[in-house]
């Protein structure tokens, strides 16, 4: 991924590194940021130096590495103040449970924690720790406090950890952190202060203990829309069915399974929402009866009775004071007619449509936007590009309405 930074507007990042095995990823992050024209100033805690030597970051960024609050040479003079004055961002990656606890409670006993308190720029934190440490109530309280203080929390992800266990706590991969840095540094902030609720991915309607009704949605478009909304400065809540994707750096991520699960999550979150974007491929039907045990195969025909699932987008659009609603339609034929009909039936200000056979599972898509002024074709492009164009269009319509 390339971060486009013009020579006239060089971006400055303070990269904080705390103690954790994931510090090796931060070295790669520093290299790629520097390679793409971002000035990276590394600040390491004492524990971080036990995992990666400061010389590594110095050689990758071409800048001295700061590690000590009390060093008094000229370049260190008032470092906890001066280092952040020209910075566009402080990114702490990895951020240990100990470091998160410090800044959540206003403690500052080393250079990096002091720097995070004495700042004027945005602060982003990428947690990395054992799954039990991440799930501990104290850590969750501290993370929630940081979010309420305006700190953006990036991740963590789920996966195999250095301790050999599997679960939440892995630091996001470098590519994901780069994507977020790109959005934070270059985002147009058109939707700053707006709260956006997004649904993504498929739903799964159980038939028995091992079988169910679902669809081919990968969640890629919904996750791209969430990422683009974050880049535009919005506060984003993403409600997602089961996918193989790592969530983007949204403010709140809710994992659901069935259409009913998704509806309940939407109902719990929609009250304070400015914009609702329904990208999820919600199953239209679910079994009337569900078996708690596996239905055994036999020579007889099996008949399933299905009932309609609730229409989540229609429910939101018909609230007494609905948010600005955006729908998605994946069609296999008659794209224009079917999309226009769906938009009219649900009284949506904007609907995005594509051909399912071309879009599902793909990294690229062609979108057609339907609004009161007609159709707007977004030619085939990567989904994150389409998502950014969509968010820009949403912003224009939202501002016209308000």
Q: How is this structure best described in words?
A:
- The structure is a single chain.
- Helices cover 34% and strands 24% of the residues.
- It is built from 14 helices and 19 strands.
- The strands form 5 sheets. Strands 12-11-8-13-16-17-18-19 form an 8-stranded mixed β-sheet, with helices on both faces. A 5-stranded parallel β-sheet has the order 2-1-3-4-5, with helices on both faces. Strands 6-7 form a two-stranded antiparallel sheet.
- Helix 12 links the parallel strand 16 (324-331) and strand 17.
- The radius of gyration is 23 Å and the shape is globular.
What is the fold's blueprint, element by element?
Layout: E1 12-17, H1 23-35, E2 39-44, H2 54-61, H3 79-85, E3 89-95, H4 97-104, H5 111-117, E4 122-127, H6 131-135, H7 137-148, E5 152-153, E6 157-160, E7 166-170, H8 174-186, E8 195-200, E9 205-206, E10 212-213, H9 220-231, E11 235-240, E12 252-255, H10 259-269, E13 275-278, E14 285-287, E15 306-308, H11 312-317, E16 324-331, H12 335-346, E17 350-355, H13 356-359, E18 364-371, E19 374-382, H14 383-401
Helix pairs in contact: 1-2, 1-8, 3-5, 4-7, 8-9, 9-14
